[in-house]
What we know:
The structure is a homodimer.
Chain A: H1 10-23, H2 31-42, H3 48-60, H4 64-89, E1 93-94, E2 97-98, H5 100-104, H6 106-130, H7 137-157, H8 165-191, H9 195-222, H10 225-228, H11 234-237, H12 243-251, H13 254-265, H14 271-281, H15 284-305, H16 311-325
Antiparallel strand pairs in A: 1-2
Amino acid sequence: MTLDTKLKSLVQLAEEYHKFAKSVNWNLHPKGLYEPIQYMMGLQGKSLRPQSLLMFANFFSHQDETALKAAYALELFHNFTLVHDDLVDQSETRRGKPTIHLKFGVHAAVLSGDSMMIYSIKMLNECFSELNKPDLMPIFYNMAIEVCEGQDLDMSFESKQIVLLEDYLKMIRQKTSVLLATCFKLGAAIGGLDRKERQKAYQLGECLGLAFQIQDDWLDFYGDPSITGKQRAGDVLRCKKTILLIKALDVASETVKETLLKHYQQNEPNKIEVIDQIFNQLQIRQIVYELFMSYRNECNQIIESFTSLHEIHKNQIRDFINQVLNRNS
Amino acid sequence: MTLDTKLKSLVQLAEEYHKFAKSVNWNLHPKGLYEPIQYMMGLQGKSLRPQSLLMFANFFSHQDETALKAAYALELFHNFTLVHDDLVDQSETRRGKPTIHLKFGVHAAVLSGDSMMIYSIKMLNECFSELNKPDLMPIFYNMAIEVCEGQDLDMSFESKQIVLLEDYLKMIRQKTSVLLATCFKLGAAIGGLDRKERQKAYQLGECLGLAFQIQDDWLDFYGDPSITGKQRAGDVLRCKKTILLIKALDVASETVKETLLKHYQQNEPNKIEVIDQIFNQLQIRQIVYELFMSYRNECNQIIESFTSLHEIHKNQIRDFINQVLNRNS
């Protein structure tokens, strides 16, 4: 294990990843199964997960090809969850294009999704065999189960009037954070960090995921629609149990709580304005921003606490965190 | 590795398996995710797959607990495929009870199915780690991918007027045989048979699966509905591309072929009688029965060829094969 102080830049890592991703061949038979996978993996997203893994893997080691394959496997898993979630949520677009079940049919969404999951596990298993670290697989399985639990929890919120903060945090942790945390941790393990440091990498991913999701809810309401590219307050219009609503119900008096619930469940033409007024009155913009900042600060504290990383590595992690969280969309 | 000549009987193995299966706890949270799994795994099927694995595992070794867990993992995987197939095929009943998507909703069929798959891989990985044989996992992954490919191939037949015998055999091999073959092979590997003998176990499972599926098509048309418990010629009514149709189209003259295709695609009230007449004329009952018997005989030849098994083991395999294929339903 050699600590590398001549680091590849984040941009370089992203470029290497995209080059690798393009080289993966999904032009296989039967077409009905593989065409949707090719389509989905061609809709390039932010690639946060592969970059998370590669960044840590690159601090110490030059298992380039293996790390790239592991990064791809985790992105494939992430895309499997998107395909099945889109089907379950009846979403119409993903990354600006029609979702798999709309473009190729329900059977394709189910079967191609299943295949993506199996391939992701198969590829990851191959990586860990190459690295002689088969004991890393359970980290992946446990994450995968949590992701399914998180999606189920999220769906169960739809039929609830009030969601507890604790349950909301559990849901976003399972649905978003654990996958990011696993990418950090597996990257750290591939790179060669010891158990204690790997655990810190995991916690960092968890915190980043929570900050990211809370920010997502915040931007939906307070972001600039011309920048986010999304309808303003789409979550409110769909009566989603966002952190803004949960925090508002938490701090409101009984009377305000009742008014808020009444208006949140209805879909009056002026719904957004009414909700905005109540949120203003309760200082929700600031309260949720502070919650976001508390997780962001926790990320920085975790970065400080790595004992086997140099300042140059820590700076790269900081850059990455900033890149993820300094966004308007 | 000790060759055990005091074999447990097939009944005993089945009992041990069912006892183990009942002890697995799916009473977990969130309920929305785990209740459908508990329901599905409670609808006891024939348990052919676990029995296949346990029979071979028991010939040589007494890794009882580990073998039982591996057997359960494969049954869990099989049930995952049933949950997703039922959703895709819009089936209403499974083992005489409502299917998951009808009882719990589409989201449950998708997510609980996904979780069953992940748990099956996780459990199997644990078994192979206990046995210090992590290199067995790829056998499972390759099977899982083939099963998805087979289901896609099966679906693609719906829009085709004519299916080639070669494609039909590929489909049933992927959809049914490879899982059974994998159970035999993994059982043999857990038991301690060498690579050559494991490969024979795999081929045996492949042949048995083909014989089973061909028999299934045959029974649908020529079986006694009061015994099969299914509607007579349900496949014909649903215009399924069965081996009977494929063989009939294969041997028929151009004129008969045309008549057969015309009647097969329509749904006249006397469809079954018309098809029956054409099949009789072409001797399809006998032709397909002979195809079935050729695979059944191949099973027997493979059993003969095992060099590390005693006659007592071979007899148990023969009993098992007879139990699977001597059926009316």
